[in-house]
Design goal:
This protein is 50% helix and 0% strand. By secondary structure, the chain is mainly α. The longest helix is centred in the C-terminal third of the chain and has 14 residues, at 30-43. The mean pLDDT is 79.
Length: 44
C-alpha cells in the first residue's frame, strides 16, 4: 500500500491537456484520511 500511495503522489497533470501544472489532487484530503485509516487497521 505504501508503494501504491507513493506512485499515486507522482502522477502529474499534462500541461499540454490542461492549463495547470503539478501533481494531481483527486479526493484530497479524503484520500489521505482513508489511507491513514487503512494503514492503522493494517498495522493493528
Amino acid at each position: 500500500m505504501v508503494e501504491a500511495a507513493a506512485a499515486a503522489d507522482r502522477i502529474t497533470v499534462d500541461p499540454a491537456e490542461h492549463h495547470q501544472v503539478g501533481p494531481v489532487s483527486l479526493g484530497d484530503p479524503h484520500t489521505e484520511d482513508f489511507l491513514s485509516f487503512v494503514r492503522a487497521r493494517q498495522d493493528g
